[in-house]
Fold this protein.
Amino acid sequence: MLIIQLAINGIAVGCIYALVALGLVLIYKATEAVNFAQGDLMMLGAFFALTFISFGGLPFWVGLALAIIGMAAVGMIMERLVLRPILGQPQFAVIMVTIGVGFILRSGATMIPGWGTSSQALPTPFSNQTLDVAGLVMAQEHLAIIGATVILCALLYGFFRHTRFGIAMQAASQNQLAAAYMGIPIKRVSAATWAIAAAVAALGGVLLAPIALVEANMGFVVLKAFPAAVLGGFASLPGAVIGGVVIGLIEVFSGRYISDTARNLAPFVVLLAVLVIRPEGLFAEPKKRRA
Amino acid sequence: MALLEIRNIETYYGPVAAIRGVSLDVEEGKIVTLLGGNGAGKTTLLRTISGIVDPQKGTVAFAGAMIQGADPDAIVLKGIAHVPEGREVFPFLSVRDNLRMGAYTRRDPDGVAKDLELVFGYFPILRERAELAASQLSGGQQQMLAIGRAVMARPKLMLLDEPSLGLSPLLVKQIFGIVQRINREQGVSVLLVEQNARMALQVADFGYVLELGRIVMENTAAKLMESEDVSEAYLGNKQQGVRGERRWRRKKQWR
Ligand SMILES: Nc1ncnc2c1ncn2[C@@H]1O[C@H](COP(=O)(O)OP(=O)(O)O)[C@@H](O)[C@H]1O
Ligand SMILES: [Mg+2]
């Protein structure tokens, strides 16, 4: 029983990492650079939701939807203002820009009245409620996190596999020049990529809120998403999700059976082990081949 | 009026001129070949036509409309499909999805489905491997995929950039044969860029020779095939001694 409860707990925590890792991988596939602002986009999404729900008095689901839409817009604006101008520059330029954007978002959030420097709770329909099934006591917020992640993954899968624009986004990430030759609108694809990454971050932020708190530094959860993404090969969306869940499970179990220090250490030990033994990650796609 | 009329195009990479005043016509329904050695500017000229790079000067008229400097998607929509050098397939998409991407700008699903069958008819191996990732195809099959992908755009003009690169003579012959069929049966005009002059001149109606960004010769394919200069420079009929010296001088005059 305890094992199952720990597992659910671990999967839920892992889903949060998975959501951040998904955003990282989406951007990495499109730009071949790491988006260091991904965690801060998550923080901003959580503050959006807090504003709509706690301050604006909107129902939770409406607030969540608005936060996701709002963050998609933020992602597009970010792409247009700071990323498109450096298109074609070396990857480190993109990385520096995202680090800068992260700093601006973090300090910007502390300057906004009402957001401030303190931690705040985001009330959700599942906060502090449990579900008892056959002697198992499960936190509803954990189940909500898992459910929402599963739904999001299904949506993303359908979008990337079966819609014309989704396939075009894959095509552009695999060979941008060829995509341009086909008449695929590269700029729209790039804007859409950032919009999706930011929207996924918003969902992650809102889901994280009940188990953490909303505050300017909540984006540092991205440090746990890096091992998740690397574990998944950094270029695979399913890999990111599985990597996130694996990291979550490792964390929870090592915290319970070894020590609290081990809880924070274990994911990185596993990460190093993977990098040494299988540097392409557990779920890497074959090496990019320019045929 | 020709389908494609290029006039005095100049294209630069930074300060470096890659195309220095090229004029060229592709008549409707014809196969025109553009010959030239490595670095002559062939790929750059095709990229200029496709809108991947913009010319500094000059005009590109296609079916009567000026298209120089337009975006690539607008140019695909107008009816120009590009088969890039080195195939450039989407490695992790299935063969079928690669072909679908060729039809990205089209809004007629029924026509696209029909053309998918058409492409499978020309290249039956692509139907057999439709669900495989493109990276799993051989070089020749990837070239077929790249050509099929262009056909999916239902173009009026197809730009082919060195389709023979790295393929066996037998395979090249087969692929050129299908290009010829597509040209005749679908009425697609073709601008064929090649270093393999002999093969290209066998299927082409007309040819141009490009050197250092300038057209140095143009004639019917039959005439070019007979021409001493082309013969020596591109058909491998090199001759020794005095003739070699003469060729060098002649080549110098081209520049
Ligand atoms: N992306 C680029 N940046 C700078 N110079 C380029 C680029 N692509 C090609 N060139 C230069 O332009 C000239 C023509 O190249 P290209 O059009 O590729 O020739 P070809 O296709 O005939 O081999 C060459 O001198 C080449 O070095
Ligand atoms: Mg070339």
Q: What stands out?
A: The mean pLDDT of chain A is 89. Chain A has one domain: 2-129+142-277.
